[in-house]
Amino acid sequence: MIRASALVPVAAAVSWQEIVDNVNTQEGVMWKASVPTKFGAPEDVKDFLGAYVPGDAEYEAPDVMEIATNAEVPTAFDSATNWPQCAATISNVRDQSACGSCWAFGSVESFEDRACIATGKPVHYSPEDTAFNSNAGMGCNGGNTAWNWFKSTGVVTGGDYTDKGKGDTCLPYSLAPCAHHVPPSAKYPACPGEGPSPRPGRQCSESGYSGSYSGDKLRAASAYSVRGVSQIQTEIMTNGPVYVSFTVYDDFPTYKSGVYHATSRKQLGGHAVENVGWGTLGGQAYWRIKNSWNEEWGDGGHFKIVRGTNECGIEGGVSAGKVSASTDADKWEEWKAEFGAPNDEAASFTAFQQNLKKIAELQEEEPLAEFSHMTPFAHMSSEEFSVRLGYKGTGAWSEMPSLGEHTYNGEELAASVDWTTKGAVTPVKDQGQCGSCWAFSATGTVEGAVQIAHGKLTSLSEQHLVDCEPRSSGCQGGYMDAAVKYHESHGACTEASYGYTARTGRCRESSCTKGVQAGTVSGVKTVGKSAQSMMSAIAKGPVSIGVDAGRFQTYRSGILSNCNGRSLDHGVLAVGYDSQSFKVKNSWGRSWGENGYIRLSTSGNQCGMLNEGIYPVISGDVAV
Q: Which of 218, 220, 232, 219 is nearest to 322 (CA)?
């Protein structure tokens, strides 16, 4: 262990040799120093630093996530040994050149190692893209961990400067390894003078690369910070190396071997690196860290630093994330294989990529639900998707006469209700590219009410309402209450006799077969705006509701529990509930959601579903 005497600050040194002598002659120091060949003087090191650390005004990082610690953490762990298939990336020491882009290197190195662990493929990702195209920093002038950017935008492939011209990655690093204020060599020529950060743009620099910049993007599925020694260890041994930032003192560049701890208190700046493991040397616990100052610095480009005391802040700025197993282009090909190639593939792919970002955001906000690119509308822009919405929402809803409001009066509610298992719900239908959701919602509540009252389930015609109901506008939207009232006075055609076309046409009501006769529906009841009132109403039969469908497009399964109903724009059918959620039938086909259904939490007014509920009263029903 380090003795207290080793922590006493030394006098400010004016040369590398003085610093080295201070370190190597000081009692209790467990590391060895040598004059670095990379830097001419301590002040030169500042050009290679650029990470913001906790306490800096500019510091930003993902939210801290609590990690369930592993009780069997080994005394030593090395990521390259544990994942030998990824040794090509984990062991590769990069060179950031004379640029304060360490934050980008620490970020992308942890990303590519975790990507390899997730996929089994040792692919290099681009510090060039990260440093000069991301919003995590300012290129050579410093930055933060880029894990949030990896999640929102993704990063393309890109090797080292020496990989330029090979054509096997999209955007290799453009700054050459160099000797900074020290004699140059054939391997490390003199660094160029100071200049602006490169501006590669959002395009591949390799003309021979077969992929595109946008298609090459690989995203993180999540981003988070980690705190605490045991949590950091558990995170590394479970998912791979992590990004770390720390404060560099002027003795650090002289590190050669042993377990580093600061013997000086002259700060040079913040630096970002990659934590790849840990161990113990001479009784001293350490972290094993990979630097980005090439393999000739330190111990083969690595260093060991004291573990367990937040030495130089090494345990205070740790971040990482989970990496998707496929690129945007891979996901796109997977989507097309399932749903078919769209007509305008370029525009659809652009919309698809935007939806990938939204999916990541929604997954964070809705932990009880699953959103996925493998959903039928993942290729649509929000404008294209809005065609499938068509409820005109608040306005006319309250203008239609009703038979009163259904409210909860304290009666005992069933623990669960599901009308799909009781024969009162027809199979899931598909409204297509027509804003006729209101018609499907209306027919659903009438179909269910008539079956419950008279014992016969008949699939009713949505096209009848699209073509004939005068208050609504066909495929341009309409109102469920107006549709149910239309059934009251006109009856309802069967689907078999008045088939669906997904476009507004001429009213053909006179030639159809009526599945529900005029007068069978005697009126409409609204539902009180509480979960208990909605449950009480559903206990009588399926309820037509309006929702804000802003989170529906890429929904795949689970329960929406954080969905605000800002603007009701879609008509659906509440067909059941249990202690956790309402079961809602949609009209987008069985390939969407949970075989055409979605679940909304019973806690809160999810997606505004409690605002505008109605159901029909069937002749002979006892008023509630």
A: 220
Q: What is the pLDDT of residue 125?
A: 97
Residues in CB range of 117: below 8 A, 6 or more apart: 83, 86, 239, 240
* 491 to 426, 427, 461, 617: CA distances (angstroms): 18, 21, 11, 13
Catalytic residue among 261, 271, 464, 570: 271
71 contact partners, CB below 8 Å, separation of at least 6:
none
d(CA 5, CA 57): 33
Q: How far apart are CA 93 and CA 91, in angstroms?
A: 6
Which residue, chain included where needed, has tokens 């509920």? 613
Catalytic residue among 133, 239, 291, 294: 291
Q: What are the two backbone dihedrals, phi and then psi, of residue 463, each rounded to the nearest 5 degrees?
A: -65, -35
**Statement: residue 11 has pLDDT above 60:** no
Helix or strand (DSSP H, E) at 237: helix 229-239
Give the pTM.
0.68
Q: Would residue 291 show up in a list of annotated catalytic residues for this protein? A: yes
| Residue 554 confidence (pLDDT) above 70 | yes
Angle at CA of residue 315, ends 310 and 321, nearest 5°: 175
Mean per-residue pLDDT for 482-503? Answer: 97
Confidence grade of residue 326 (pLDDT, cut at 50, 70, 90)? confident
- Structural domains of the chain, with CATH: 4-189+198-320 (3.90.70.10), 384-408+416-618 (3.90.70.10)
Query: Judging by beta carbons within 10 Å of its beta carbon (0-12, 13-18, 19+), is residue 504 exposed, middle or buried?
Result: middle
**Which residues, 6 or more positions from 614, have their beta carbon under 8 angstroms from its beta carbon?**
402, 445, 480, 481, 484, 524, 525, 526, 527, 543, 544, 545
Q: What amino acid is encoded at 373 in this protein?
A: H
Are 331 and 353 within 8 A, CB to CB?
A: no
Segment 329-356 shows an average pLDDT of 94
Q: Is residue 490 flagged as an active site residue?
A: no
Interval 309-319 mean pLDDT: 98
Which tokens hold the place of 2? 């380090």
Token pair for 17: 């040799």
Percent of the chain with pLDDT over 90: 85
Catalytic residue, candidates 86, 92, 99, 102: 102
Closest CA to 388 of 589, 567, 564, 565: 589
In this predicted structure, what is the pLDDT of residue 399? 53
303: amino acid identity, one letter: F
Predicted pLDDT at 179: 65
Q: CA-CA distances (angstroms) from residue 66 to 55, 127, 556?
A: 21, 28, 27
Mean pLDDT for the stretch of residues 459-480: 96
- Enumerate the β-bridge partners of residue 115: none
150-195 residue pLDDT tens: 998 999 999 999 999 999 999 999 998 876 555 667 777 766 655 6
